[in-house]
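User: I've been trying to design a sequence by hand for this structure and keep getting stuck. Would you show me what you'd pick, starting by listing the structure so we're on the same page?

Assistant: Good idea, let's start from the same input. This is the structure you sent:
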């Protein structure tokens, strides 16, 4: 090799200023990027293939034990990056290099990547690192096993904005990775369970889960389900809450999330303009509380207390009111509650809940209820007017105050009975 070629090679093996900056940034953010490697992936795309290889090798040689884990998180993201990683692993004097290369080979790589993996394994062997040969099966290289499609399932939303999301992600060569996540539109991810099992056991798990609860899960686009989980994860970060440790560790196995914000699935089945052209649907939305999925929807006690006091005052007033006057006074209280409680953020929260419930109802075969739920959701785009509040919200307030009154009466009755039994 002449001096000119040696100089070119030496220059090519040296980190560029951009790559050096990224190397330091990667060391500083290793723990965060192991959980979500997408930011690093975006930055690596700006480097040439040669600089990617030099960067990856430099990273592997760092003493920080977290950095190799980060590179494993990058595996399988892009063909070009996998090629650079496989090549750099062949220059890393470590048994970890052999482990990563074998995992890459087991993932049914392309012909070009498989060839690079074999070259790196040969280099490691020549360095004295024990590595078993990998089989060069043409069927494996050229005809990778096709995975069955992923599946997603959703529960209805409970009175507190919580719901279950279940994801089935088929694995190579067989089996299913099952992810069961409990999310909240207020608190983000509040529960997470994952297991790798057979397809039969996954179906049995789903069946047992359905039997344990009064509701049924409905099928949903798995990408959308993953998007909901990602939304909840972003909410955790926004409110400064740490999600379950298992979720942070296993999140890369769930795949890439669709871009946010999500458009609710109900709009794939119902047209917004058609629903808005049916004022009867909005007027009938108060009847949704007769459906099993809405029967437990009430305001929180702290939200309703002020209006409960007004409600009791109107019922026990010493003023002589006609039934019509009394009914009018109570209606004013309901309207006041809707107007004061449901500001823009609260309306948007309930709008999304009703959109999600509209999809659930649609998939559950309750299409009329789905239309009413969507009508109530769309009406929340505008501020509730005091004289004509959203019928769904008005009924929510009425039943919440009525339920609180019944609770207090039952507690009072119970105390009286206890006094009679135990004088």
């Amino acid at each position: 090799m002449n001096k000119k070629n040696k100089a070119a090679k030496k220059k090519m093996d040296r980190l560029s200023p951009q790559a050096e900056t990224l190397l330091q940034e990667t060391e500083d953010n290793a723990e965060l990027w192991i959980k979500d490697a997408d930011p690093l992936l975006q930055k690596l795309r700006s480097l040439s293939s040669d600089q990617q290889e030099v960067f990856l090798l430099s990273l592997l040689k760092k003493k920080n034990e977290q950095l190799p884990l980060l590179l494993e998180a990058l595996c399988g993201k892009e063909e070009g990056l996998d090629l650079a990683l496989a090549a750099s692993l062949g220059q890393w004097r470590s048994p970890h290099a052999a482990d990563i290369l074998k995992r890459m080979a087991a993932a049914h790589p392309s012909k070009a990547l498989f060839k690079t993996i074999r070259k790196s394994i040969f280099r490691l062997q020549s360095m004295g690192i024990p590595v078993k040969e990998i089989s060069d099966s043409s069927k494996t290289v050229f005809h990778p096993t096709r995975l069955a499609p992923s599946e997603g399932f959703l529960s209805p939303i409970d009175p507190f904005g919580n719901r279950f999301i279940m994801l089935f992600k088929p694995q190579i060569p067989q089996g299913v990775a099952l992810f069961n996540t409990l999310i909240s539109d207020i608190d983000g991810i509040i529960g997470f369970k994952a297991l790798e099992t057979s397809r039969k056991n996954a179906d049995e798990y789903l069946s047992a889960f359905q039997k344990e609860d009064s509701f049924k899960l409905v099928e949903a686009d798995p990408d959308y389900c993953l998007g909901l989980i990602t939304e909840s994860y972003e909410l955790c970060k926004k409110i400064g809450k740490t999600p379950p440790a298992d979720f942070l560790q296993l999140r890369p196995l769930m795949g890439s999330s669709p871009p946010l914000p999500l458009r609710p699935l109900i709009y794939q089945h119902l047209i917004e303009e058609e629903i808005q052209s049916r004022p009867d649907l909005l007027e009938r939305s108060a009847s949704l509380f007769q459906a099993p999925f809405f029967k437990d929807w009430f305001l929180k006690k702290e939200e309703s207390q002020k209006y409960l006091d007004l409600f009791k005052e109107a019922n026990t007033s010493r003023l002589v009111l006609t039934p019509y006057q009394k009914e009018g006074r109570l209606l004013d209280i309901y309207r006041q509650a809707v107007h004061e409680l449901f500001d823009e953020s609260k309306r948007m929260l309930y709008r999304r809940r009703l959109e999600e419930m509209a999809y659930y109802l649609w998939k559950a075969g309750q299409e009329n209820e789905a239309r009413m739920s969507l009508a109530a959701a769309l009406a929340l785009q505008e501020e509730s007017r005091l004289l004509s509040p959203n019928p769904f919200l008005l009924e929510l307030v009425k039943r919440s105050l009525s339920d609180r009154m019944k609770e207090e009466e039952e507690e009072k009755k119970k105390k009286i009975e206890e006094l009679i039994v135990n004088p």
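That's my pick for every position. To get oriented when you compare it with your attempt: DSSP finds 20 helices and five strands in the chain. The longest strand covers residues 188-197.
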